[in-house]
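Reproducibility note. Readers wishing to regenerate the assembly model reported in the main text can use the exact inputs given here. Chain order matters: entities are listed in the order in which they were concatenated for prediction.
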Amino acid sequence: MANQSEGRRDALKTLATVPLLGAMAYGVYKKKQKEHYNRQAGNLFNVGQEQAERKVMDNKLLRLGVIGYGIRGNYLMRALGFATPAQLEDWKWQGSQNPDDTRYQDFMEQDDLNVRVTGVCDIFETYAREAAEAGANLHRELPGGRMDQTPVVYKNYRELIASPEVDAVIIATPDHWHGEMILEACRNGKHVYVEKPLTWTVPETYLVEDAVKKSGVVFQLGHQGRQIEINHKAKAIIEKGLIGKVNLIEVSTNRNDPNGAWVYPIHKDANEKTIDWQQFVGPSERIGEYQNYMNEFGLQRFVGPDSREKFSLERFFRWRCWWDYSTGLSGDLLTHEYDAMNHILNLGIPHSATSSGGVYHYKDGRTVPDVLQTTFEFPDRDLALLYSATLASEFNRPRKIMGTDATIELGSTLDVIVDRASVQYKDKIEQGLIKPGEPFYRYASGKSIDALSSATEMYFAQRGLLYSYVQGKKYNTTFLHLREWIDAIRSGSEVSCGIRPAFEEAIAAHMGTRAYLEGRTMYWDPDKREITRG
Amino acid sequence: MQLTALVVLRVLTGWYFLYEGLVKLLSPSWSAYGYLMDSKGWLTSFFIGIAESPVMLEVVNYLNIYGLVLIGLSLLLGVFARAGSIGAIVMLALFYLSHPPLMDVSYVLRPEGSYLWVDKNLIILASVLVSGVVFPTSHRVGIDRILQRKKKR
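Running the prediction on these inputs yields the following C-alpha cells for the assembly.
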C-alpha cells in the first residue's frame, strides 16, 4: 500500500510540469491563428511582381568614353568598375580602420560589365590623368598591380565623341554643357548616359529631344532612383488603387553641410595652367540663349556677378552655386524628387509651377537659392506636388503620397499608413484588423513586413538592419542604372529614364526655375509645347 | 517550500526559453541578423562578423532556434536539466556579451526596461544557475527524477 502511494507520488513529481506543455501548445496555437487572420489584412499591400529577371542577349565588349571626372564622373566610373589604384588602396586602408566602411569590399565584389574605358576627357589636368589611371585599372588592382591599356586622354570632348574607339559616352560635366554634348554625341551616333538635369536652357531642351529621337541612340538620363525597389512597390500599390485617390504629394530635400550646399573643396593642383578655362566658359549658342532669357525678363541680377571670362577656382569647383553654369536646386535636386514621382505616378509635365525661396543661409556670393519651394499642379490628375528644400537642415522628411484611403511614406523603407477616414478599409478598421494612423505595412530590401506580427522586424527594417542582401546580393542603384543602359545598347531592351521622361524632367525643372526667377506662375501649353505665362 | 520556489523559478525560465524558440521556429523569415548587427560593446566585431557571413548566420540562426526550444523543454520538464541549464547559461552569456547594458551605449532595438550593467539576461542567467545547477531541482521534480534513479540502479 505504502509502495503504491509512493509510486504515485513519484510519478506525480516526475511529470508534474508536463501539463504546462499543453498550455504552451494552446497559447501558441491561439496566437498563430490570430496572426494568420491579421496577416491576411497585411497582405493587402503586398502586391506587384518581383522585378523582371534580367535577360542579356549578348555580352560583347562595349567601349566607353567618359566626359567629366569630377565628383559624379568619379562615382560613375566606380559604378562601372573603374577606380584608381591609389583610391582602392585608400579604401582598403579605411576599411581596415573601420569595419563599417565596406567600400573596398563592395567594389571588388561588384559584377564585371565587360566594358572598357577607351577615352576620357576632363578640362582639369589632374582629373583627366586620374580618369585615365582609373580607366586603365581594369583588374581592380592596388598600386603596383597589372594595368590594362590606358584610355586616350582627350583635350576636347568633340574629339572623344568622334573617336572610332568610342561606342558610347558618359557625360558628367556641369549642367551648362549637358545639352551641347548630347547633341554632339547624337550627331556622331554615340549612345549617351548623361547626368541630370537634361539641359541648362529651355531652347536646347527641344533640340536635345529631337536629336535623340532622330539619331536612335540609346539614351539614359542619370536618375538612378528609377532603380529603387521601394519606388517600384509604391507604383504597384497605387496602381491597384490601394491608397485611394491621390490629391497631394509632398517631397523634399534636406541637407546641412557645405558639400551638400555645393561648397566643394578646391583642388590644390588647380590653377590657370592646369584648367582649360576657355572650355569651361561654355557653348556660345547656349550662353546666348541664357543671356537672352535673362535680359528679356529683367533678370540680370541673377547673372554673374563675375564675368564668364574671368578665371575663378570657386566658380570652377563650385559651379552649382551660380546660374551661369547651374540649374540650382531645381535642376540638381528637385529633379530627383519629380522624376521619382513621375516614375511612380506617370505624371508627365505639370500644368503649372510656382516657386519661392531665397539665399537664406549661404551668404557666399551665390546666385542660386538655398531654400526653395516649388508647387506643381496637375489639374488633369486632380493632384498637386509640393517640393520643399533647405540646404541648412538635415531634418528627415520622407516622401509622402497622400491618398484618400492611405498614405505611402517613402524613406529608407516604404510604409503604408491607413487613413482613419478611409472608406475602402472601413470594415477592417472597425474589426480591429487595421490600426489607422500608424505604419501598417512596411516593405524594405525585397521583404514585406507585417506590422501586426513582428514589431521588431519592422523596427529593424526602418533602420536598415533587416536584410543585408537583395536576392543574395547588395546592389548600388547607380550601378543598376548604368547596367540597364548597357544592356539596352547590347540587346535593345528598355531603359527606364529615356528621352520622354528626360524631356518631362527638364521642362518641369525649367518651369520651377523660371517661376522662381520671374516670381510668377509658369504654365505648360501642351498643344504648342511651350512654357507660357498665363 | 524552498523546493517549490526553486522549481517554479526553473519552470518559468523554461517557459520563457521554449516560447522564444517556438516563435522563431514558426516565423520562417526570422533571422538573428538585425540583433547581431545591433551588437555593441566589447565583442561587437565578433557578432557583426557572424551576421555578415551568410553561412555563419545560417548556423547561428539554427543553433539559436533549436537551442531555445530544447533548453526550454529541458527546464520546463526537468529532463537533462543540468545540460539544459549549462546550455541556457552559455546562450544568456552570449546575449549579454553581444548587448552589454553599458553606460554610453544605446541599441536600435531598445530594451523594454532601463538597465545599467545588470540586465534581464544576467538575472535569468543567475536564476538558471540557482534553479538548475546549484540546486538540481529536476532530480526532485521532473523527468530527471526517474532517469537519476535508473542511473543509480
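We highlight two features of this model. The two ends of chain A are 107 Å apart (CA to CA). DSSP finds 18 helices and 17 strands in chain A.
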